Amino acid sequence: MKRLTTLLITATFSFLLPSLAQAQGMAGMDHSNMNMSQMPAMDMTSLKQLKGKAFDRAFLSAMIPHHQAAVDMAKAVLPVSKDATVKAWANAVIKDQNREINQMNTWLKTYGGTDTNMAKMMAGSMQGMTSMVKSSKTPDVAFVQGMIPHHASAVDMANLALQQGASANVLKIARDIVKAQAQEMYDYRLWLSKRGL
């Protein structure tokens, strides 16, 4: 059963990688301020060097600002959204990721506190996401297109956590991120597809 789960997660991750590249190449979207293409490799390099409790601490420290960037982007699209589906997605991002941020902050207290270097690195790589939505003539599209590579990088980190994490809490939240965000990426792609994007 464990082997099957690992294969499914690996297959899901392998399937999502092309989506990251496709999302970055979509017309009408400016990723120049987001630095999304560099973020996963940079963070994965740091995380891959760690194991056990040190990994757990670094993973949570990076995932909190990563989640916060999604929350900020969702808050940016809500006042200007003209699409009920996008509004529902944005509200779900705010609710779910704020809940997970609170959980991760609580866990970090028992893991020695925030790894400030990891947190700063992630926060820096997230800059530009909110302004991308605010400056777009089609903020609903900008939000959906921006969330795809953002989710892909979260799935990337969560997949690594399932391989190298030590605590049950980290393993569970990593599994939940992979499951929830893969489904959301699928929904986002269908929404874009229906619009010829």
From TrEMBL:
Database matches in InterPro entries: DUF305_CopM-like, Ferritin-like
Domain DUF305: 22-108, 140-195
Annotated signal peptide: 1-23
Coiled-coil boundaries: none
Keyword annotations: Signal
UniProt entry tagged with the keyword RNA-binding: no
Protein's name according to its UniProt entry: DUF305 domain-containing protein
The organism of origin for this protein: Deinococcus xinjiangensis
